[in-house]
Amino acid sequence: MLRYLAQFSEWFGPLRVFESITVRSILALFFAFAFSLLAGPKFLRWLRGKRATENMDKDSQTLQDLHAVKKGTPTMGGLLLVGCTLLSALLTCNPENELAMLALGVLAGFAAIGLIDDYWKLKGLGKNRGLSKRQKFIAQCLVTLVVYLLLLAFHEPNQTKLLIPFTKWSQVHPDLGVFGYGAFFLLVMVGSSNAVNLTDGLDGLAAGISVMTILTCLVFAYVCGNEVLCNYFLIPHITQAGELTILCAAMIGAVMGFIWFNAHPAMVFMGDTGSLAIGACIAFVMLSVKQELVLPLAGGVFVLEALSVLLQVISFRTTGKRIFKCAPFHHHLEFSGWHENQVVVRLWIMGAITAALGLLTLKMH
């Protein structure tokens, strides 16, 4: 709502500063981080009071032994992360920007799916304690479908076109059509959401890599919302994309605040509430700014984690053999003798490199 204060700049000139996306982005990051630190301790006490704690039952006895010390740690920490993001973004974003408001809807929608799954797990509801894979997939598809239809209603002229990395937008931009792009949109949204969810298995791992990936999203959103920069980098100008910069900044601040409590040894786990929401919001931003094909590079560690699970399942079902000692990939590294902190920090390094490579594509058109 700070954007409204700029209307009174005629009476008090310094209020004009709230027209700036850069200023509001910095404030969004600061607010979200501060909210997380202030609310975190009380939130953790509330989770412990509700006995919303992880039981750490695993399919693998080795994995269960490795993580035995984590038993009793509060989960559903994603509520803190998503709540602080929403509050900060609502304070700093322009509420008249349809793209930013839809992005907040994506964050809240996928967080709701994760919250139901986390709650059911805690209460032992559902056949498999929590939402089944089918139920979760259907719910993700329904939310994505609603989001896609609303996005089409904005009548963005390039919505169904793809920007191919390392090519010129003015020359190469295949149009997949409403249905073709819709299927692609669904694949990216659901795939990204579940990839972050699979990565969330060690203290600080998914959160740390998310910060780097979201930072890449922030840069792309800022550039795509600025017509001068778009002309320089030869990429399409998305008129409402600038406000997504503020949302990304709020997410970074909230995730950084969450890491304060999630760093090893974790005082709280993210749960599906946070991981599904972060993954979906990252995907939505990159889809909105026409950088869909850069996302697998920028979020390379998330892709690696998801592929490790997919390859493991395919290999075991077809040959009866496992490629990895345990999937996702971070557990394979644990089984290979790496300490949890080694795994997390080294995958953070990989995440920083892939995020930088994603940004490098800006100059490759």
Structural class category: mainly alpha
What is the tally of helical segments? Answer: 15
Number of strands: 0
Low-confidence stretches: none
Distance between the termini: 36 Å
Q: How much helix, percentage-wise, in residues?
A: 55-70%
Oligomeric organization of the protein chains: single chain
Secondary-structure element pattern, one letter each? HHHHHHHHHHHHHHH
The biggest beta sheet, please? Answer: none
Our estimate of the beta-strand percent is under 5%
Shape: globular
Radius of gyration (Å): 20 Å
Number of domains: 1
Q: Whole-number average pLDDT?
A: 89
How do the helices and strands line up, and which of them pair or pack?
Layout lengths: L1 H4 L15 H29 L11 H6 L11 H15 L5 H26 L9 H21 L23 H23 L5 H20 L2 H7 L8 H21 L8 H18 L6 H4 L1 H20 L9 H7 L4 H21 L5
